[in-house]
Amino acid sequence: MVEKKKSKNLDISEEKSQSSDDKIALVIMNFFIDVFYSIFFIVLAYMSFWIIVVLSVLGFVVRAVGSEQPDELKFFTSRLTEYISQCLNFSSNTNKEKPFPFGKFPD
Q1: Do 63 and 86 touch, CB atoms closer than 8 A?
Q2: So where are the chain's domains?
Q3: Could you say which of 48, 61, 62, 94 would form a disulfide bridge with 89 (CB–CB 3.0 to 4.6 Å)?
């Protein structure tokens, strides 16, 4: 009888240690997933920044030629700056909602 109680106690303690190990592994895995997403969105923000630079130069060229900058170009540039803001807010843990391509592109 005594041996059965000891073995049950050992089983319970092993389950608790496995449970705590699983929790620790889950926390570590979530941390690395968050780091991966942060790096991913920082890279997207960086690429978007350079797209805005090119669009700005294109806008200056269009204005230098003598015509008005197209409204679509202005609208897309403002949407892209909002996207950069969303990417950086997610990467700095200010906002937990994932931006485009996992969420909606800013309007």
Answers
A1: no
A2: 2-91
A3: 94
